[in-house]
Design brief:
Largest sheet of chain A: 5 strands, mixed, barrel
Order of helices and strands of chain A: EEEEEEEE
Strand order of the largest sheet of chain A: 1-3-4-6-5
Protein name (chains A, B, C, D, E): Carboxysome shell vertex protein CcmL
InterPro entries (chains A, B, C, D, E): CcmL, EutN_CcmL, EutN_CcmL_sf
Strand content of chain A: over 45%
Family (chains A, B, C, D, E): Belongs to the CcmL/EutN family. CcmL subfamily.
Largest interface: B-C, 31 and 31 residues
Oligomer: homopentamer
Subunit structure (chains A, B, C, D, E): Homopentamer. Interacts with full-length CcmM.
Main location (chains A, B, C, D, E): other
CATH class of chain A: Mainly Beta
Number of helices of chain A: 0
Shape of chain A: elongated
Structural class of chain A: mainly beta
Amino acid sequence: MLIAKVRGTVVSTQKDPSLQGSKFLLLQLIDENGNLLPEYEVAADCVGAGLDEWVLISRGSAARQPSSQEKRPIDALVVAIIDTVTVDNSRLYSKNEVYR
Amino acid sequence: MLIAKVRGTVVSTQKDPSLQGSKFLLLQLIDENGNLLPEYEVAADCVGAGLDEWVLISRGSAARQPSSQEKRPIDALVVAIIDTVTVDNSRLYSKNEVYR
Amino acid sequence: MLIAKVRGTVVSTQKDPSLQGSKFLLLQLIDENGNLLPEYEVAADCVGAGLDEWVLISRGSAARQPSSQEKRPIDALVVAIIDTVTVDNSRLYSKNEVYR
Amino acid sequence: MLIAKVRGTVVSTQKDPSLQGSKFLLLQLIDENGNLLPEYEVAADCVGAGLDEWVLISRGSAARQPSSQEKRPIDALVVAIIDTVTVDNSRLYSKNEVYR
Amino acid sequence: MLIAKVRGTVVSTQKDPSLQGSKFLLLQLIDENGNLLPEYEVAADCVGAGLDEWVLISRGSAARQPSSQEKRPIDALVVAIIDTVTVDNSRLYSKNEVYR
């Protein structure tokens, strides 16, 4: 999975019928030092992530494992809102203290 | 999923029989600031996207989830025509106003 | 899918038994301006593509959708020989006129 | 598969219900000379890997092959703790001697 | 598929039970001119490839198509030992003559 920051939303009315009701988040990838990377992903969201939150994205067929996403033509899904990221036993990120 | 701009079409008569009737779009990827990237994708289209429109592309087995695409040897599909893209609460793109 | 040019062949006698009879093509990827990229792919061929022809490659599980390729350990397949590529309403490539 | 070094952990309480009980490791990829690459992966762990250990990561649907991971929306899994890596008949890494 | 050269082995005793008996090869990718690329892959081997041999690697779910690999959490498999690679009708590599 990849760590990303919620940066915005993508809205579409003309889409595959199975995507009705899907919310698409614009996510910018984060490197292992907590810096924003110049890469983004658009993913469906099944955990209710908010703007600026750090999340975990699963890509490929993993995105369709939850029953709510089965048979939907999606290849990326937000599967978790991150509480903490620890590197070499020191705290890189903590949702509560928002070190970053 | 990835955001891309419809730039053209790819036509082929000699192809896997299951691809008869498929329309292939040439799509150029767009970065999170709305700029064209030097990367493209060729995708089947199931939403009727037009030239210069911004779309969402799903890749991998996601492309074969709609019943119309099952068992077709495709690995990319246009799944939505984008109305708006919002980043940090400000409008990056709007199909109606075509900021870009 | 990706656009590529047939550059050659890869021959192997010692291979997974299910690959007996498979022809492998060496394909160089092409960018959206029609230039060769420094990236290649080896793909099985089910449309009879010839040297220097432009083709469409499908990758991942898409390569095993045609019944002839089921259960074969391949991750790339030539699925179409390209007749024309049009970008912004102007012809980038035409098999007959071989602009490139 | 890819070789990586365990660098830390990612903790999340708000996640897809099927991920309850999953431990996520932050892994930094390693190149063929044993140097850390500027790329990381977050993976579920089913072999109990510890900090600084070299491991093998499988990505994509491979991550959901063990019965313990079926139907979980994960796209990366630690599948082995590496004992040794040998290149051109000479030892690049050995868990016991920790050449690196 | 990708062309690679066998450079070494990766040994692990602590691994997913289904991987018992699997041999992992360290493979360095080769470009279309026959030069080693700074990218490697670790793959299971089902054709008995030896050090310095050129091989074809399949990645993703393709790696689990042979019955011997079903349900194993692997995402890369050596599927063929290469005899010859021909580019623009001239021989780039021949196992017997080992041009490279």
